[in-house]
Known about the structure:
Elements: H1 2-16, E1 19-27, E2 34-40, E3 51-59, E4 62-66, E5 69-71, E6 77-83, E7 89-97, E8 106-110, E9 114-119, E10 122-128, E11 147-151, E12 173-174, E13 180-182, E14 185-187, E15 197-208, E16 213-224, E17 232-244, E18 251-261, E19 268-270, E20 279-282, E21 292-296, H2 302-305, E22 309-310, E23 312-318, E24 325-332, E25 341-345, E26 358-361, E27 369-371, E28 377-387, H3 392-403, E29 407-409
Antiparallel strand pairs: 1-7, 1-29, 2-6, 3-4, 3-7, 5-6, 8-9, 9-10, 10-11, 12-20, 13-14, 13-19, 15-16, 16-17, 17-18, 18-28, 19-27, 20-26, 21-23, 22-25, 23-24, 24-28, 25-26
Amino acid sequence: MRITFALMVLLLSSSLSSQEIARFTVTPAEGAGISSVAVPLDGIDFNTDSHRIALYRKGSSGMSEVPCQIERGSTALLWFMFDNRQGTSEYIIRREPEEDVSKGSLSAEKTQQATSIIRNGNPVLTYNHAEVLPPEGVDRIFRRSGFIHPLWSPGGEILTRIQPADHYHHYGIWNPWTRTVIDGRYVDFWNLGGGQGRVRSAGYLGVVEGPVYAGFRVRHEHVAYLEEASETIAINELWDVRVWDTGVEGVSVVDLTTTLNTPLENGILFEAYRYGGGLGFRATEKWHGDNCTVLTSEGRTRDETDGTGARWVIIEGESSAKVGRSGVILLSHPSNRMHPEPVRMWDTSANRGRENMFFNFCPIRHTDWMIEPGKDYALRYRMVVFDGQVTPEEAEMFWRSFAKSPVVKF
């Protein structure tokens, strides 16, 4: 009887203890800083009610636990943040006894109007899934849903603007297409005042929060008004927005991936034009030609930028943050069409540019783009939001962290 009882205790303690289930190495990407890394969990049993999955990095002083987060899907992924500057590292995945573990620094708060992503109690961004009406006295045709505003700096400065009197159809961070052709007919989804088309939020596919990232996946419908009192869905779009916890204070990292397809039998043509799609950014009304600066990856300043290509663009200006300045680095992924991606920038002589700041990554700036039925088209962007100032070298490091993935090997 004693032997049986001892054996039961041994088995129980073994089942509750930490158990290694996989190990792998990560080789850094050259010139990168902190990267988000996804490890596929094919063949790894991570589904359990009584245990949790934990990740450890093997260092010179022993093992240290690293925050991780599982993304479930057709292929489950284990996400964590990796500092490329620490060199090649070995990691161990363990199954550990379930315990009260903090959900992490990132959370999502959803209301009837919008979803906000919060980091360490401070808002990072808000996505508006419900329509926002224009100011009183302005035509309701300028109402809009499916955009990001506000985008906050880590110090609490709002960096975006919506419905400015000069362009009521500008909505913080948004991306409609301008000169499109459907069966020989022009449709403009950008300029709402024309009444030809619009973009609207069409429902969530998921909202997630955790210690590594928080975000949401949402559908957008690009609606064309081809016939009186009728709607035609010309483009279906999936927005995947993620806010990462890099572990660095004073910097917010936001990814926006847009995936497009069309249900139209003959597809839809995006004609080459200086505005359209990609990533549009209408900045705070505080920024103007005398207190806001621009620098691109190609070394161009604000009045030299329009129509050129860029991997990244730094836009920063005066703010009420403690350090007195805030800004954002807008990054284009090398997989994007026409990379380095063409840009539309209001210089100080265009569209009252001395008084306003507007920027657009515009992959159709110089060449048409045919969106064919049955195909998906993706564009990936990152926004690094900061207080203070960043150097070109830092911007390049952020871009490499986005563009070049560390190598994972089991």
